Amino acid sequence: MQTDFLIIGSGIAGITYALKVAHQFPDKKILIITKAQADETNTKYAQGGIAGVMDFEKDSFDKHIEDTLIAGDGLCDPKAVEIVVKEGVDRIAELIGWGARFDKESDGDYKLGKEGGHSEFRILHHKDITGKETERALLDEINKYPNISIINHFFVVDLITQHHLGYLVTKATPDIECFGVYALNTQTNEIITLLAKITVLATGGNGQAYRSTTNPFIATGDGVAMLYRAKGRIENMEFIQFHPTALYEPNVTGQSFLITEAVRGDGGILRNKDGEAFMERYDPRKDLAPRDIVARAIDNEMKISGTEHVYLDVRHIPLEKFLEHFPNIYEKCRSIGIDIATQMIPVSPAAHYSCGGIKTDEWARTSIRNLYACGECACTGLHGANRLASNSLLEAMVYAHRAAADSALQINNLSLRENIPAWNASGTTEPKEMILITQSLKELRLLMSDYVGIVRTNTRLARAMKRIDLLWEETENLYQTTTISPQLCELRNMITVGYLIVKCAQLRKESRGLHFNTDYPGKRERAENIIL
């Protein structure tokens, strides 16, 4: 298969990019491929909203920039922060123009929420399903462009570079170039060669590497792992944001239901098993402190009490108001027997967002030519050591727009590489036991959660690395000798992501932002990014 633009992922980053280039180049082919259904993305599960300066009488770009820099704990790229905050307003306007419906006051002004780390009310939202509404609007909009095609159930196995032409490619190789991808059609089990002039990674996050995560089952770090194997540059993978308040349900693994931070923005109070509102002991901002502080506070309270969760108290919030703002949270709680009017909601932290990822520049260019990355899989410099709430959808749109603008300058000078070999599966056989994959995945999730979670130590990280090395060796042997499957590829990708998180965490000899190591409780005087 051949296309001009190839986009891997159908979330807000991928679709925004597709719409931009489709509008500018109606005669060129744009192909979006996704390993599940088009609407099964991290975007879909974003509850809280999109941060943007909408009320210039009370808010300002400078305030939003300052809030982002404070949350990032010294590692934000100031230029990236300014780009996203200032250009984000126009991208939000475009999204509204594409049909996204955000909640409004009775006078027609947008209802603006406030979340942890924000100094003003600036969060646009659609009840508690902002991501789902955003994804709906985007998917509706692309139907207007006949030159955009979406193929579901295509799992990308690897990026195609000079390596596949027989050249030795290393991190030091200049001008590594992406020619397309090898992709597995999961309905026919056929691996196809998909050639493209420009390829965009919009593959989302990697929360599924942890035992408990708010991410959907598709969030297995595929883009980051593929780029690392292709010898591209990765940055700051140690900064994994744990959402403080995922709904605690015993024996649920894989994907936890998110209780958005906006609930605390509306007055929800965290309490321990004794009913104490404990956040005032950890931060003067109490329940609206940045997520890393709240998550560590909850983790500490759980360790002190020996419990597996704390509580979020919303009993004092008028039920009518809660139903208006958070109808899906209300229904979810009711479905498991919790009456939020009379009972507190059990919550615990869960892996939520990767602040690091594929290193990109201000135009979303990766270290590999003709390959862009945007959305959660990318590390643009916006988030630094900790993401400010509701900045992620904003970042995805801004850098998708910038990637499209840069692509437009390149596309007419590029041609398809014709001499790419077909995928070679000779010597492989069907796997005899799926338990080899499923058990390795359980082991990985357990060690990542226990050793590379909210609080880390050098000993825990060393143990994690030893076990990941063994899992990698076993899985690579399986990969080389058996016919590949999505399950095997995802395991392989998550092991790679786990390795990158641990390696970056070992290299960071300090505690900063989302990386808290009890062996280095202080900070260095000079903040540095870790690039692999």
Could you give a short account of the major beta sheet?
7 strands, mixed
- The percentage of residues in β strands lies in 15-25%
Average pLDDT value?
A: 92
Low-confidence stretches: none
Our count of helices gives 13
CATH superfamily of the largest domain: FAD/NAD(P)-binding domain
The CATH topology of the largest domain: FAD/NAD(P)-binding domain
Radius of gyration: 22 Å
Query: Terminal Cα separation, in Å?
Result: 32 Å
How many domains? The number is: 3
The global form is globular
**Helical percentage:** 25-40%
The total beta strand count reads: 18
CATH first level of the largest domain: Alpha Beta
The class by helix and strand makeup works out as alpha/beta
